[in-house]
Amino acid sequence: MPDRAAAPADPAIERLNALGPEEFRAELAQCLDIDRWVRALDGERPFRDRDALIAAAGRHAAAITDDEVAQALARHPRIGQQAAPAAAGGTEAAWSRGEQAGVTGAAKDDFRAANAAYEERFGQIYLVCASGRSGPELLADLTARMANDPAAEARVVAGELGKIALLRLERLLDRQ
Questions:
Q1: Which residues contact 165 (CB under 8 A, 6 or more apart)?
Q2: Tens digit of pLDDT for each residue in 70-126?
Q3: Where does the Oxo-4-hydroxy-4-carboxy-5-ureidoimidazoline decarboxylase domain lie (predicted)?
């Protein structure tokens, strides 16, 4: 009869499970700095594996409220703009710069104008999961979203925050 050994442990999950509450919250806030989301994940520990953590993170991100969107947007740089100097050296700022790498050169000027129009219409910055997308793709997305009504746009932004959170959570786990 074959030996049914347990699946190999995931050092990243083991490390996160072993962190104290404050350290865990600091780690996860790099992915999505929404206190309810971070506390909810902390409350579900220990996670048996990566899939369980990702599933829980997705579930809790799906419940992002309009107030949480507003709080999160206050900490995000505009597409094509660097993170605030106070945060420029942090992991979250580095991830943001990498995610926005498709917006370069003349595209930055186009984004300045498009961002201004978006902010005038919706009263907030344009937020999108920009990872792996080119400047022209992002500009086309922004332009298309200008047709949304404010309530629909709020739900789109909440969904984009969720995508960003899961992408960053994967990065957090992969760097362990």
A1: 31, 32, 37, 57, 61
A2: 888 887 777 765 544 444 445 555 544 444 545 656 667 787 889 899 999 999 999
A3: 17-170
Distance, CA of 48 to CA of 13 (rounded, Å):
8
Q: Which residues contact 147 (CB under 8 A, 6 or more apart)?
A: none
Is 84 inside any structural domain?
yes
**Helix (H, G, I), strand (E, B), or coil: what is residue 99?**
helix
Tell whether 3 is covered by a domain: no
pTM for the model stands at 0.80
Domain containing residue 53: CATH number: 1.10.3330.10
CA 158-140-167 angle, to 5 degrees, is 40
- Give the number of domains in the chain: 1
